[in-house]
Specification:
Number of helices: 10
Strand content: under 5%
CATH class of the largest domain: Mainly Alpha
CATH superfamily of the largest domain: RNA polymerase sigma factor, region 2, helix turn helix motif
CATH architecture of the largest domain: Orthogonal Bundle
Order of helices and strands: HHHHHHHHHH
Structural class: mainly alpha
Shape: elongated
Helix content: 55-70%
Largest sheet: none
Radius of gyration: 18 Å
CATH topology of the largest domain: Rna Polymerase Sigma Factor, Chain: A
Oligomer: single chain
Length: 193
């Protein structure tokens, strides 16, 4: 597990080259490195755990099919998350009516794809539940930028590239999301907004 956290840019490209040449272990390592971030991207769009997991699977299938198009000079994470974003948008458009019925059915507490079911209520603090409810109330674009910034740890430039919007728009959406989160959380924390 520590090896995964310590993967450098050069190590990543070595893994990708090995995976491209058919090394299954190398491909599995790449999947482990990025599955959480891809899941969070898909979940922030779709708001449904099973659909997000489908997007994760499809994203890595696309990676496997498109190894030859990976730019070794570019940012692999941005490239991969763009694939996940595009797949999520396509899925959203295709299943929009179904999504409308299921919207807000699940909370952000499910952002761990490794667990087979939603996190158990006994493990969640009141603060985490309040935070999750407030995050669910944000507009879609604000929520997406917030998740990418705080859950995926992406920089404004990377978010702008993935969403194909200006850095200024990303900063504005992030600022509004933070302000809205403060407003929504303040009463639940017994503070003045």
């Amino acid at each position: 597990m520590d090896r995964i956290k310590e993967t450098t840019h050069d190590d990543l490209w070595i893994l990708l080259e090995k995976a491209k040449d058919g090394d299954r272990d190398a491909f599995k390592t790449v999947v482990r490195l990025y599955q959480q971030k891809v899941f969070q991207m898909a979940y922030s769009f779709l708001r449904n755990r099973e659909d997000a997991l489908d997007i994760v699977q499809e994203t890595f299938m696309r990676l496997y099919q498109k190894f030859d198009t990976v730019d070794t000079e570019g940012n692999f994470q941005v490239w991969l998350l763009q694939i996940a974003k595009n797949l999520s948008i396509d899925y959203y458009r295709k299943h929009y009516s179904r999504r409308r019925e299921m919207e807000v059915e699940k909370s952000v507490d499910e952002l761990d794809p490794a667990s087979g079911a939603a996190a158990s209520p006994g493990l969640n603090s009141d603060l985490r539940q309040a935070f999750s409810r407030c995050l669910d109330k944000l507009g879609e674009r604000q929520r997406l930028v917030f998740v990418m910034k705080h859950y995926n740890g992406l920089h404004y430039k990377e978010i702008a590239e993935i969403l194909d919007i200006s850095i200024g728009t990303v900063k504005s959406l992030h600022f509004k999301a933070v302000q809205n989160m403060k407003k929504l959380l303040s009463p639940q924390l017994g503070m003045q907004p």
